[in-house]
Design a protein that fits this description.
Keywords: Glycoprotein, Signal
Structural class: mainly beta
Organism: Dipteronia dyeriana
Number of helices: 5
Oligomer: single chain
Family: Belongs to the multicopper oxidase family.
Radius of gyration: 23 Å
Pfam family, one: Cu-oxidase_2
InterPro entries: Cu-oxidase-like_N, Cu-oxidase_2nd, Cu-oxidase_C, Cu-oxidase_fam, Cupredoxin, CuRO_1_AAO-like
Distance between the termini: 23 Å
């Protein structure tokens, strides 16, 4: 009898799940895609090398969708290794099952497929996707993901006359498997060989004189900040990772690893061609990629020296970052103003301090957070948590503050309460730039500062109009403070966006949990979930 009641309860829950999803998504369009991942041979820096193609394209296809669209994307893996894509900046509301990282998903085996099902719920802006497995990111497989506003939802600027996506990042000529072998042996990656714009060393963007165009710019590289500028033109910042900004005018902008911005450029100069420049920052060697801004119907070629970049100083970059401001009166994905949520009036429930480091563990280079260097399990943490599988991860392996003990490896998970509002301090005591990303969320970047963070530094926070984003930079020997509203239950990856550091352990998972389990908090496991490791034999 008890078993019968349990079966009936499961059936009722299943029906309620279907009804709930249909009620939420019934009026929102569905977009269907089939992507095939293969290897190909291209010469992005002049010499042939193996790259990862999606539907034969490098970079991969651009996803242009609208707020609240439902994405049904069948990914077919024709590589010789397991593969996953993650959707950089997509919040996956109540749905960490679709996040596409090894802590939430089994990688897609070779000659197999997986169908992602997710919604661009309450989001707008410029994002991207990329491979999260191994070092596949070093071979390509990335692409743009742009979320446009729904009808009747105003944007705080006139519709641009055109819209370009620029995927910019450092690039290695060395095969991704060789790079991975070097990291596995305890060696750091070499300095990149060049910078690509949309997978090429040179591109052309044709525009009409007198018109205004949007350029959506993402740093899809592995390791280096770049500075973006256009010869003879200023750029107006209008959006950062889904946040509409105060529309300041700049000569150039720094874009750190994993970040995205959108700018407006008006063609108000003499009709000819102009350089578009992306050059690396904060290294003795400067790598530069150029493209051409072409005024249509005019044939005067680009000329003159490349426009000079800003001072090669961290201080300059930090001061620029502080000028980014939220447009409090503009709507984003919803009609209500962005500033209607008064984040600065909320007292955080707790403070977490995360210190990165580069220890030697067992004689090999690793990267760590609060002395813990993360190692992947063969069972995704989300599956282990759902099926109550013991021995996959440890609750107590990472603490919420730095420790002075020796560094060690662990599959680390930090617990947090659903609906808590928390403060996170990224403390960088190293001499190199850091870039931190949190899946499932955006967060308010309330402060940057040099040296060691202390409670007195809170007096410097912007508690009025700082913007939200999903990836923030942390300058050398400095700190960055963020506020996060933990309103999205799930298992979420907190990681370095600098891929060498992520691969060698500078990451962990944040389990945002509510004891009340229902569809208002989190969706059920997908019926097509891939099972691997200790989850094999369990049933979704």
């Amino acid at each position: 009898m008890a078993r019968g009641r349990a079966v009936m309860l499961q059936l009722i829950c299943g029906v309620l799940a279907v009804l709930s999803v249909s009620l939420v998504n019934g009026d929102d369009p569905y977009r269907f895609y089939t992507w095939t991942v293969t290897y190909g041979t291209l010469s992005p820096l002049g010499s042939p090398q193996q790259v990862i193609l999606i539907n034969g394209q490098f970079p991969g296809p651009r996803l242009d969708v609208v707020t609240n669209d439902n994405i049904i994307l069948n990914l077919i893996n024709k590589l010789d290794e397991p593969f996953l894509l993650t959707w950089n900046g997509i919040k996956q509301r109540k749905n960490s099952w679709q996040d596409g990282v090894l802590g939430t998903n089994c990688a897609i085996p070779p000659n197999s497929n997986y169908t992602y099902k997710f919604q661009t719920k309450d989001q707008i802006g410029s994002f991207n996707y990329f491979p999260s497995t191994a070092m596949h990111r070093a071979a390509g497989g990335y692409g743009g993901l742009n979320i446009y506003e729904r009808p009747r939802i105003p944007i705080p600027f006139p519709n641009p006359d055109g819209d370009f996506t620029l995927l910019i990042g450092d690039w290695f000529k060395t095969n991704h498997k060789t790079l991975r072998e070097n990291l596995d042996s305890g060696k750091s990656l070499p300095f990149p060989d060049g910078v690509l714009i949309n997978g090429q060393a040179h591109s052309t963007f044709s525009c009409d004189q007198g018109k205004t165009y949007m350029f959506r710019i993402s740093n899809v590289g592995m390791s280096t900040t770049f500075n973006f500028r256009i010869q003879g033109h200023t750029i107006k910042l209008v959006e950062v990772e889904g946040s509409h900004t105060i529309q300041n005018i700049y000569d150039s902008l720094d874009v750190h690893v994993g970040q995205s911005i959108a700018v407006l450029v008006t063609l108000n100069q003499a009709p000819k061609d102009y350089y578009i420049v992306a050059s690396t920052r904060f290294n003795r060697q400067v790598l530069t990629a150029t493209a051409t801004l072409h005024y249509t119907n005019f044939q005067t070629p680009v000329s003159g020296p490349l426009p000079a970049g800003p001072p090669n100083q961290f201080r300059w970059s930090m001061l620029q970052a502080r000028t980014y401001r939220w447009n409090l009166t503009a709507s984003a994905a919803r009609p209500n103003p962005q500033g209607s949520f008064h984040y600065g009036q909320i007292i955080p429930a707790k403070t977490i301090v995360l210190a990165n480091s580069a220890p030697l563990i067992n004689g090999k280079l690793r990267y760590a957070v609060n002395s813990v260097s993360y190692v992947n399990s063969d069972t995704p943490l989300k599956l282990a948590d759902y099926f109550n599988i013991p021995g996959v991860f440890s609750w107590n392996s990472i603490q919420g503050a730095p420790s002075s003990g020796p560094s060690y490896v662990a599959t680390s998970v930090m617990q947090a309460n659903h609906h808590d509002f928390i403060e996170v301090i990224f403390q960088n005591n190293e001499n190199v730039m850091q870039s931190w990303h949190l899946d499932g969320y955006d967060f308010w970047v309330v402060g940057f500062g040099s040296g060691q963070w202390a409670q007195a530094k809170r007096r410097t926070y912007n508690l009025v109009d700082t913007l939200t984003r999903h990836t923030t930079q942390v300058y050398p020997n400095s700190w960055t403070a963020i506020y996060v509203s933990l309103d999205n239950q799930g298992m979420w990856n907190m990681r370095s966006a600098i891929w060498e550091r992520q691969y060698l352990g500078q990451q962990f998972y944040l389990r945002v949990w509510n004891q009340v389990q229902n569809l208002a908090n989190e969706y059920f496991i997908p019926s097509n979930a891939l099972l691997c490791g200790k989850a094999v034999g369990h049933h979704p």
